[in-house]
Design a protein that fits this description.
Helix content is 45%, strand content 13%. It is of the alpha+beta class.
């Protein structure tokens, strides 16, 4: 029986019929299944389905983002066909990764219904976001994340790889997210002239001086990572990736999230700092980058802007409680305005600040 035109997974009946047909296709002879909604991210509807020991994930983007009313218009306006680009990212990057860093396999992309079906990379692990909120900062996990980004950048820089169908599309996507997570953070709240100047300076500097032909993940953060007990990781959600950008952006995006977790778990400052050091170590072992003073200073500022972005930008993090926002914003602003030369200086400032 053909599926109705553009089914919606959020409709229980339609989802049940759809999964039944998938099981016939992927696992013949398996009929009984369980499924559940995975409430992560602001854009898509994600479901986990388990049948006979097999686990698959279904992701659908509709015309309207899942949490449209809670995110900025720039983010909500990313076309729903974004999930169709994940296969190119996975195909490009997975071949460079060791066994302890795993990306899912694309089992099927149902273009008509805009549904992506992928394999399980959780494999008994825990969402990294949950682990960090619980104060579990695993240095091996952090090292593997740094290594993942380092390998991704090292093996794609200068190779003119396109992710979104054309170089023009990649450039457009990169510019949307560069602006969203730099000057875009200034739109909802009033910031000092110093903050505004520094953010605008970074945006202009990057736009004209630091654009590379390199695959940029654009969304490497704890909500998209599963960690296992041995520190191996599984990563998901590559729909925002581009073949153009600044490698420091990816690294700053990841480290900014770890700094947010540090500000939330001030009882785990040294563990958080150790994890950030491990990210940098894993990255630097693969990518000959961050040796330049400008690269390090830009990386620090990116990290600070991401802290503001998750509080006052287009995609506020739901796990950040009101009582934690002032410290997150304070640290973020200091990283943007104080011209730290590297993260050793940042760690010195944080330790001193949190002792007061």
């Amino acid at each position: 029986m053909p599926y109705p035109k553009m089914i919606e997974l959020r409709n229980d009946r339609q989802r049940s019929e759809y999964i039944k047909n998938l099981l016939k296709e992927f696992f013949p002879g398996t009929a009984a299944f369980t499924d559940k909604f995975i409430d992560v991210g602001a854009m898509n509807y994600v479901y986990e389905a388990e049948a006979g020991g097999h686990v698959i994930y279904l992701k659908q983007a509709l015309d309207d983002a899942k949490n449209k009313e809670k995110i900025g218009k720039d983010l909500a306006g990313i076309p729903k066909n974004r999930i169709g680009y994940e296969d190119k990212y996975i195909e490009t990057i997975s071949k460079f990764l060791p066994k302890e860093i795993e990306l899912p396999k694309i089992l099927k992309y149902d273009k008509e219904n805009n549904i992506l079906i992928i394999s399980d990379v959780k494999k008994g692990g825990t969402l990294l976001e949950e682990s960090l909120l619980n104060g579990n900062f695993n240095a091996k996990t952090a090292y593997n994340l740094g290594k993942f980004l380092g390998l991704s950048h090292k093996n794609t820089i200068g190779r003119n790889i396109t992710i979104r169908g054309s170089e023009e599309n990649d450039v457009d996507n990169w510019e949307i997210f560069l602006k969203m997570r730099t000057t875009g953070i200034l739109q909802k709240e009033k910031f000092s002239d110093d903050v505004v100047k520094n953010v605008n300076d970074v945006y202009e500097d990057v736009k004209y001086n630091y654009i590379n032909n390199v695959v940029i993940n654009m969304d490497c953060c704890p909500k998209n990572v599963f960690e296992r007990k041995n520190g191996s990781i599984g990563l998901v959600d590559f729909e925002l990736a581009s073949g153009i950008g600044d490698p420091a952006y990816d690294l700053g995006f990841l480290i900014g999230h770890y700094l947010i977790m540090l500000a939330i778990r001030t009882d785990k400052v040294e563990e958080a700092i150790s994890s950030i050091q491990s990210i940098l170590k894993g990255y630097r072992e693969e990518m000959n980058f961050l040796n330049d003073k400008n690269d390090n200073e830009r990386l620090v500022k990116y990290s600070g802007m991401i802290m503001i972005y998750r509080v006052a930008g287009s995609s506020p993090a739901p796990y950040i409680k009101a009582d934690k926002m002032p410290l997150i914003k304070e640290i973020g602003i200091q990283l943007i305005t104080r011209n730290f030369h590297n993260f050793d200086e940042v760690f010195y400032y944080i330790r001193k600040r949190l002792k007061n």
